C-alpha cells in the first residue's frame, strides 16, 4: 500500500510538472525547457549525463546535491528561519545546475530552476529529512571530472607536449595543497587544469565557511552531553588580515609566462578555452598572462613584485637552461611551497642537473665544501611514465628551510594528537 501511495504521488508530481508547458502530457523534457528559454545549445551538457527530463534532473540533484543543505529545522522553528533555509537550498541548486550543465552561467541556471523549482524544492526538503544525519558537502567534486571539461580542453592538447597526464596530476596536487599564488612557465594544456583547480578550491573553501557558520563543520559527539570536535583548522580560516587583498579566506591567482614561440605551443588558446569553460570571468579573475622570455635575467625580480609563490610549474622545454632559471626564481618560492619541473629523468641534459639537485637534497642543501647552497634545505621526488620516450617524467621540489636571502623556516604544524 505504501509503494502504491508513493507511485501515486510520483505520478501526480509528474503531471504537475508537465503542466508547466502547454500541451505536455508527460514529464517536461529538458529540450523543451531549454528551447523555451532560448538556450538549446546547453542540451549536450544535459544529455551527456543522461538528463533528458525534469525527473532525470531531480534524480541527479538528489544524488549529487540534495543531502548537502544545512540541517533541517525543527517543526517549531520560526517562519523566517524556514525562509532562510529555503533561500539557502535554492542557492545551492542554482550553483549546481550552473556548474554541471550551464558552463557556469548562473542566469540560465536560474531560468531552468524557475521552470522546475516547485517540485525540486519539495523533493529536496523531503530528501534532507530522510538523510539529514549525513552531510556530503565535503565529498569529492570538481569540474575536471565532467565530460564537458574534457571536450573543451581538446583544443589545447598536443601529443608532443606530453601533458595528458600532467594536467590531471597538477589539478589534484593543487586541490590537495590549496596554493593561492601559482606561477606556470610555459602555457598550454595544463593551464586550464590549474585554473579549474583554483576555482574548485575556492568553492570548496566557501562550502567549509558556510558549514562553520552553521556549526556543522564538526565531528558529532555520540554522547549528548559531550562536546563536538571541530573538523576545520581554525588557524587557516582566521588568516584574514589587513595584509590580504580582500576579506576572503582563499584568494587564488595564476600567473602564466610564455613567449608564444614554441613550435607546438597551444598557449594562445588558453584564454579562449578558459572563457568557453567560464573558468576565468569577472567574478573569478584568476588568470594573469605575461608574454615574456622566461630566461630574461630580470624577470624573477620584476614579475608580480612582492608575491611569493606557493607553487611553480615549470615546463620550459630547454633542459640545459633549467638550472639558471630555478636559481633565479627559487627565492620567490614561499617556504613550504612546491616546484614541479617537467621532463627531468630520461634526457641526459636534465638528468645531469637533477643528480646535482638530488645530491644537494641529501646533503641538507649544502655544497661539497659545507657552505649553504642557493636553495637551502629542500626535498625532492621524481615520477616516471615508463611507456613514453619523451616528455615522460617530472620532479617535485619542496622548499623547506633557510635561504641566503630569506631565512624563514618551514615546518608543518602539529594540530592533533590522533590522526
Structural write-up:
This protein has 419 residues and is α/β, with parallel strands linked by helices. The chain has 14 helices and 9 strands. The strands form 2 sheets. It has a 7-stranded mixed sheet, sandwiched between helices. Helix 13 links the parallel strand 6 (309-314) and strand 7. Helix 4 crosses helix 6, helix 5 packs across helix 6 (106-131) and helix 8 packs parallel to helix 9. It is globular and about 75 Å long. The two termini are 48 Å apart.
- Arrangement of strands in the largest sheet: 5-4-1-6-7-9-8
Q: What's the count of strands?
A: 9
Q: Describe the biggest sheet?
A: 7 strands, mixed
Low-confidence stretches: 1-26, 65-81
> What amount of the residues lies in strands?
5-15%
Order of H and E elements: HHHHHHHHEHEEHEHEHEHEHEE
Measured as a percent range, the helix fraction is 40-55%
Counting DSSP H or I runs of 4 or more residues, the number of helices is 14
N→C terminal distance: 48 Å
- Dominant shape: globular
Helix/sheet category = alpha/beta
Average pLDDT metric: 78
CA-atom Rg in angstroms: 25 Å
Amino acid at each position: 500500500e505504501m509503494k502504491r501511495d508513493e507511485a501515486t504521488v510520483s505520478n501526480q508530481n509528474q503531471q504537475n510538472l508537465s503542466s508547466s508547458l502547454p500541451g505536455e502530457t508527460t514529464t517536461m523534457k529538458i529540450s523543451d525547457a531549454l528551447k523555451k528559454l532560448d538556450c538549446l545549445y546547453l542540451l549536450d551538457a544535459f544529455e551527456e549525463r543522461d538528463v533528458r527530463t525534469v525527473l532525470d534532473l531531480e534524480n541527479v540533484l538528489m544524488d549529487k546535491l540534495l543531502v548537502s543543505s544545512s540541517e533541517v529545522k525543527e517543526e517549531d522553528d520560526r517562519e523566517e528561519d524556514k525562509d532562510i533555509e529555503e533561500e539557502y537550498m535554492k542557492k545551492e541548486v542554482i550553483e549546481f545546475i550552473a556548474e554541471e550543465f550551464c558552463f557556469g552561467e548562473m542566469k540560465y541556471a536560474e531560468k531552468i530552476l524557475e521552470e522546475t523549482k516547485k517540485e525540486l524544492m519539495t523533493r529536496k526538503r523531503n530528501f534532507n529529512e530522510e538523510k539529514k544525519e549525513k552531510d556530503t558537502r565535503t565529498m569529492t567534486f570538481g569540474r575536471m571530472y565532467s565530460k564537458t571539461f574534457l571536450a573543451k580542453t581538446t583544443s589545447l592538447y598536443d601529443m608532443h607536449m606530453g601533458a595528458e597526464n600532467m594536467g590531471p596530476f597538477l589539478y589534484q596536487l593543487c586541490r590537495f595543497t590549496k596554493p593561492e599564488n601559482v606561477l606556470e612557465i610555459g602555457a598550454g594544456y595544463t593551464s586550464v587544469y590549474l585554473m579549474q583547480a583554483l576555482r574548485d578550491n575556492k568553492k570548496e573553501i566557501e562550502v567549509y565557511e558556510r558549514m562553520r557558520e552553521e556549526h556543522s563543520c564538526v565531528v558529532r559527539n555520540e554522547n549528548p552531553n559531550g562536546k563536538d570536535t571541530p573538523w576545520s583548522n581554525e588557524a587557516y580560516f582566521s588568516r584574514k588580515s589587513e595584509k590580504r587583498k580582500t576579506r576572503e579566506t582563499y584568494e587564488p591567482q595564476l600567473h602564466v609566462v610564455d613567449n608564444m614561440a614554441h613550435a607546438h605551443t597551444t598557449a594562445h588558446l588558453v584564454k579562449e578555452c578558459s572563457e568557453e569553460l567560464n573558468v576565468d570571468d569577472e567574478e573569478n579573475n584568476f588568470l594573469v598572462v605575461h608574454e615574456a622570455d622566461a630566461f630574461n635575467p630580470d624577470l624573477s625580480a620584476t614579475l608580480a613584485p612582492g608575491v611569493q609563490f606557493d607553487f611553480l610549474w615549470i615546463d620550459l622545454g630547454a633542459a640545459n637552461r633549467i638550472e639558471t632559471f630555478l636559481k633565479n626564481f627559487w627565492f620567490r618560492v614561499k617556504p613550504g611551497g612546491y616546484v614541479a619541473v617537467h621532463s627531468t629523468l630520461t634526457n641526459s641534459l636534465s638528468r645531469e642537473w637533477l643528480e646535482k639537485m638530488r645530491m644537494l637534497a641529501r646533503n641538507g642543501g649544502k655544497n661539497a665544501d659545507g657552505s649553504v647552497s642557493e636553495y637551502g634545505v629542500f626535498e625532492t621526488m621524481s615520477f616516471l611514465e615508463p611507456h613514453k620516450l619523451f616528455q615522460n617524467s617530472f620532479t617535485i621540489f619542496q622548499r623547506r628551510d633557510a635561504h641566503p636571502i630569506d631565512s624563514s623556516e618551514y615546518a608543518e604544524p602539529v594540530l592533533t594528537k590522533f590522526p
